[in-house]
């Protein structure tokens, strides 16, 4: 028989198994129900998450109606929670997408495999529900946080609206009160006007009555007068008629007699003296004609015309005479209204006979030796005229005031040889004693209107259109910039008088047209200088200018005479390269190639002057766009300047000539003149010719931008290397120069975008998925991100066009290239709108655009003239805000931790506090950050902080200029600037304590005379820095001692605000450690502290210690003794203050108890 215990055990086990079976069955049923309903729950949850994601995206989008009502700080707070919630919902969404497919694909009844798959996915959905529950709980927390932020923002907005509403109600009430007052005033005015109108009406009635009476009386008087006049007129008219008849007869008879006598006399004179009269008139005309031929320039190449071949006619009846000569005469007009010649088509006025001149000169004291070989020709005859000459020039004694030129030379003309003139004398006169030169100076002083208007900052006003400014430095240490203006009518009259007086002075023998003043200036030099002073006004006196040039030519003024432009009282400012004497033609052509439009109405006389163009010598280019317009207007100047036949063909816009004369060597060989490609600006066919042959078009593009020629710029932008660097670390001209004309800049941006998009298409087509993922390339890939790496990767696989390597893959947002005088970010905005949206890609200089913008703005603030604000801080703030709003990173450190400039934007914001106002919007974008540059120096514990920028001198290696006045201003206002900086950033008390402690360390460091080994030092090697730290070891111990005392003293006075404590602290320090003077605190590399300044500081320090009773004691002991007394007195003061505070408190309590 079985054991009862065994039976009971078996029964118990059976019941237990039965219970487990029932529980398993129940759980299986629940699992089946859950598996059946799982897909629907997943779909519902997925739809709910989709709606939540869309809601959060709408909240973060700039198109949201809530976005425009949020401030920057509110949006920053809300965006943190919203972005985290969106990330959590996207993660849940990714988990739900595979689970939601279970209910989408319904299976047929006979497909058991799909049912099994569906059941398996349902079971997997049940398994993942627990994970989803955890994520949903986390999402609920984020939603609660987001809701709280939205409620806080709503409360802030409501409070702001309440304040604004209260202000509006206050303004309305004040306006209503003002309106009521004005209404009452108006009512009183109306009453007074009504009363005045009533009185005026009564007075008017009285006046009308009196006037009516007066009119009646006048009418009676007129009637009486009319009757008297009618009676007298009858008698007087008959007498007057009789007298007039008598006088008329006498006058008629007298006039008839005089007329008869005159006619008899005229007939007799005409009959008797006709032959004599004709001969006299012919003789006078012949003399005048001969004189004019002697003065004419062509008279040197031939004699006067033969008068026997002339025709002379005279008509006495008409009063006219006519003289015709067989020779061709061309005379220059002497009046501006007669000098009107239309521009003729280009025709070479020089032959191509290899004309040239070679001259070598040596000077020994008063003697000068010159060897000259010349190949010249007549203007209209292709026949060379060669000459060899050896000359000796001797400056005579001061009594003779001249130079004697003795020449030994031969002149070969055709096959004939002639001796050249041997002696020549040039007279040198004092300018203030010469009638001619004094007339030039008096003309400027009399008729020139000097305009030296200053702007609100004390600087010369900006130059207006077609206006030139001059330097006036006579009797001044520094030149004064002035503008010269002229009154047209008085100037023209004065200029005509000037020419007439010069002619009279030469004819009377008072002066010679070939005279030269003591500075080497001639009549030709003074004439051309006057052209530069007149500017475009010279076109009004073109005839008079031609007369002056003609006088200089007839007087044999040497065109090779040189003078220094600095000797002129008013000199043209844009002559920086004229540090040596120049000829008159060099001076004139330099002005003509600068001024645009060019005054060339007198140029026909200039080109007829022998040797004038030869005096140009090695004339270099100045302003290329003005020179281009000058050459296109007057092509003959190009020949005179020595331009090649290829350049002449381009100027004539001859495409066949360009193709015939084209050589690569000649195109790339022009260095001092406009290149052939630059001369092609404005000619599309020529530009396409050069661009198609791959020439460098960088300089031509610069000229096209200056000319604002969009058509030429669009052709040049098709060149392959237009976006390439001319040299490393140099800005491409296409970005730097296109700023002068906005449409061309937009064309440059669009062309760069097209090239980057082509590079993007090549990357999507030829790179594998892994390579694209590594580079971050997608259809939404930014155009300026990883462009250099993508180009190099493609270059290994395919033959990538060179034109796609634009800007070497760097960002076009280069603040140096897009520099604007007002520091606006207008051109950055254009690039951003085009598609270059990543502002954290380094530019060609290896730094981000924001870092370079901050550095340039800081440089401008540091180098500006003291007192010249011009709104730079405010415009700088606007630029910083734009960069930050567009996602620019405020941390400027590179990936390796290095930084070319200051490592964070807070350094620049602190620097701006010392120069002007900092926009609180920019400062509020950053919460408190302990930012340092991680440099090693005793002046700081972990590196320099942004607060150092407004305390110490920052004229280090970063800035090219430095004014000591800036250091003085910063030194006097540094306490105020530090307080402003901490208030702007809204620092807590602990944060403010830390900033003030760091500043205290820096100030003590510099007062102890220690050397900087951080960013504020010169370029030192590691060994030099280590040596300096070793030398400052003793001072470093004293610095640590003072900092420990600072902590103890601050702990004792902790109840006091930090600003009050600092006054106590620095008064205590000043006794044993005198403060630095601005000159001693300056750390600029351009302001070296001399030994005498350091010696004076040591003497002042020693005298101060002696006055305090610490003479002859080591400074470490001085610190201990001095602060021992100070801390003892401070403790006694604090105990007394606390005791007095407790006594007042007890007294107040007793008074309340008694009451």
Descriptive overview:
The protein is α+β, with helices and mostly antiparallel strands. Among the domains are: about 10-200, no CATH class; about 275-325; about 720-845, no CATH class; about 850-1115, no CATH class. About 55% of the residues lie in helices and about 10% in strands. It has 37 helices and 15 strands. Strands 3, 4, 5, 6, 7, 8 and 12 form a seven-stranded mixed sheet that branches. A four-stranded antiparallel sheet has the order 9-11-10-14. Strands 1-2 form a two-stranded antiparallel ribbon. A hairpin with a 4-residue loop joins strand 1 and strand 2. Helix 6 (about 490-505) runs parallel beside helix 8 (about 540-555). The longest helix is centred in the N-terminal third of the chain and has 161 residues, at about 110-270. It is extended, with a radius of gyration of 49 Å. The termini are far apart. The model is unreliable at about 105-110, about 290-355, about 375-385, about 575-580, about 865-870 and about 955-965 (pLDDT under 50).
């Amino acid at each position: 028989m079985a054991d009862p215990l065994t039976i009971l055990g078996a029964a118990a086990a059976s019941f237990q198994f039965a219970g487990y079976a029932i529980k398993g069955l129940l759980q299986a049923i629940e699992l089946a129900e859950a598996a059946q309903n799982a897909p629907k729950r997943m779909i519902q949850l997925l739809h709910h998450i989709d709606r939540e994601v869309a809601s959060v995206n709408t909240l973060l989008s700039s198109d949201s109606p809530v976005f425009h009502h949020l401030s920057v700080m509110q949006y920053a707070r809300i965006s943190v929670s919203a972005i985290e919630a969106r990330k959590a919902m996207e993660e849940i969404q990714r988990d739900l997408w595979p689970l939601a497919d279970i209910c989408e694909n319904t299976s047929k009844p006979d497909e058991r495999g799909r049912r099994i798959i569906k059941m398996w996915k349902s079971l997997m959905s049940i398994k993942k529900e627990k994970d989803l529950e955890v994520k949903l709980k986390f999402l609920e927390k984020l939603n609660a946080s987001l809701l709280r932020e939205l409620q806080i923002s709503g409360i802030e907005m409501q409070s702001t609206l309440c304040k604004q509403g209260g202000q509006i109600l206050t303004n309305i009430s004040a306006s209503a009160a003002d309106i009521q007052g004005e209404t009452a005033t108006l009512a009183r005015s109306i009453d007074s006007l009504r009363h005045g109108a009533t009185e005026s009406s009564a007075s008017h009635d009285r006046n009308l009555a009196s006037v009516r009476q007066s009119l009646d009386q006048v009418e009676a008087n007129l009637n009486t007068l009319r009757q008297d006049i009618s009676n007298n007129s009858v008698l007087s008219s008959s007498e007057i008629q009789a007298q007039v008849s008598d006088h008329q007869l006498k006058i008629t008879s007298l006039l008839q007699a005089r007329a008869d006598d005159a006619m008899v006399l005229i007939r007799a004179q005409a009959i008797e003296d006709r032959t004599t009269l004709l001969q006299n008139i012919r003789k006078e005309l012949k003399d005048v004609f001969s004189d004019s031929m002697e003065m004419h320039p062509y008279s040197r190449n031939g004699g006067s015309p033969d008068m026997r071949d002339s025709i002379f006619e005279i008509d006495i009846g008409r009063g006219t005479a006519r003289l015709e000569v067989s020779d061709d005469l061309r005379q220059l007009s002497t009046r501006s209204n007669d000098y009107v010649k239309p521009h003729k088509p280009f025709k070479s006025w020089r032959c191509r006979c290899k004309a040239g001149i070679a001259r070598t000169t040596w000077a020994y004291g008063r003697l000068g030796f010159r060897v000259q070989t010349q190949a010249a020709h007549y203007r209209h005859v292709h026949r060379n005229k060669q000459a060899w000459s050896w000359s000796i020039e001797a400056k005579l004694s001061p009594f003779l005031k001249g130079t004697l030129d003795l020449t030994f030379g031969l002149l070969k003309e055709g096959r004939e040889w002639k001796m050249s003139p041997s002696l020549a004398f040039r007279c040198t006169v004092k300018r203030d004693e010469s009638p001619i030169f004094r007339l030039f100076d008096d003309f400027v002083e009399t008729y020139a209107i000097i305009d030296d208007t200053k702007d609100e900052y004390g600087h010369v006003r900006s130059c207006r259109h077609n206006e030139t400014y001059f330097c006036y430095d006579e009797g001044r240490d520094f030149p004064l910039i002035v503008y010269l203006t002229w009154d047209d009518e008085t100037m023209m009259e004065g200029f005509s008088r000037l020419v007439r007086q010069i002619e009279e002075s030469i004819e009377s023998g008072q002066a010679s047209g070939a005279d030269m003043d003591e500075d080497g200036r001639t009549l030709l030099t003074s004439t051309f200088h006057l052209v530069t002073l007149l500017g475009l006004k010279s076109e009004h006196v073109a005839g008079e200018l031609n007369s002056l040039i003609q006088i200089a030519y007839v007087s044999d003024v040497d065109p090779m005479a040189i003078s220094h432009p600095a000797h002129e009282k008013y000199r043209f400012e844009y002559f920086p390269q004229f540090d040596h004497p120049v000829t008159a033609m060099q001076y004139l052509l330099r002005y003509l190639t600068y001024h645009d439009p060019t005054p060339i109405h007198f140029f026909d006389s200039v080109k007829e002057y022998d040797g004038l163009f030869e005096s140009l010598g090695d004339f270099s280019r100045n302003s290329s766009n003005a020179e281009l317009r000058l050459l296109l207007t007057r092509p003959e100047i190009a020949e005179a300047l020595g331009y090649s036949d290829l350049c002449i063909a381009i100027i004539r816009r001859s495409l066949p000539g360009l193709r015939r004369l084209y050589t690569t060597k000649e195109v790339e060989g022009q260095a001092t003149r406009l290149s052939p490609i630059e001369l092609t600006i404005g000619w599309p066919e020529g530009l396409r010719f050069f661009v198609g042959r791959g020439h460098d078009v960088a300089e031509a593009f610069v000229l096209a931008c200056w000319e604002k020629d969009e058509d030429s710029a669009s052709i040049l932008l098709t060149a392959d290397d237009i976006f390439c660097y001319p040299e490393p670390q140099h800005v491409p001209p296409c970005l730097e120069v296109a700023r002068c004309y906005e449409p061309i800049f937009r064309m440059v941006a669009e062309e760069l975008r097209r090239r980057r998009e082509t590079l993007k298409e090549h990357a999507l087509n030829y790179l594998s998925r892994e390579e694209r993922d590594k580079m971050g390339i997608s259809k939404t890939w930014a155009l300026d991100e990883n462009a250099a790496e993508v180009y190099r990767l493609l270059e290994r696989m395919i033959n990538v066009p060179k034109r796609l390597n634009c800007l070497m893959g760097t960002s076009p947002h280069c603040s140096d290239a897009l520099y604007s005088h007002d520091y606006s970010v207008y051109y950055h905005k254009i690039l951003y709108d085009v598609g270059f949206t990543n502002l954290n890609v380094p530019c060609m200089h290896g730094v981000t655009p924001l870092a370079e913008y901050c550095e340039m703005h800081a440089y401008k603030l540091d180098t500006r003239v003291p007192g010249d604000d011009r709104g730079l801080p405010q415009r700088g703030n606007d630029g910083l805000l734009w960069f930050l709003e567009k996602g620019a990173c405020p941390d400027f450190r590179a990936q390796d931790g290095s930084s070319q400039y200051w490592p964070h934007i807070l350094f620049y914001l602190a620097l701006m506090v010392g120069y002007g106002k900092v926009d609180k919007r920019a400062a509020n974008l950053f919460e408190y950050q302990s930012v340092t540059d991680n440099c090693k120096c005793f002046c700081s514990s972990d590196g320099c902080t942004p607060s150092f920028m407004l305390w110490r001198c920052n004229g280090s290696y970063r800035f090219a200029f430095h004014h000591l006045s800036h250091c003085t201003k910063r030194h006097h206002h540094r306490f105020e600037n530090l307080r402003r900086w901490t208030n702007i950033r809204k620092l807590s008390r602990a944060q403010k304590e830390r900033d003030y402690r760091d500043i205290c360390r820096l100030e003590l460091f510099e007062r102890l005379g220690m050397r900087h080994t951080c960013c504020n030092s010169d370029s030192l090697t590691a060994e030099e820095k280590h040596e300096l730290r070793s030398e400052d070891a003793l001072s470093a111990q004293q610095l640590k001692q003072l900092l420990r005392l600072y902590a103890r003293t601050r702990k004792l006075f902790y109840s006091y605000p930090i600003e009050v404590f600092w006054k106590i602290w620095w008064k205590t320090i000043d006794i044993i450690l005198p403060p630095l003077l601005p000159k001693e605190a300056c750390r600029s590399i351009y302001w070296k502290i001399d030994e005498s300044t350091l010696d004076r500081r040591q003497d002042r320090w020693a005298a101060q210690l002696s006055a305090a009773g610490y003479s002859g004691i080591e400074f470490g002991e001085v610190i201990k003794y001095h602060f021992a007394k100070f801390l003892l007195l401070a403790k006694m003061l604090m105990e007394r203050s606390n005791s007095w505070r407790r006594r007042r408190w007890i007294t107040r309590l007793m008074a309340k108890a008694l009451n």
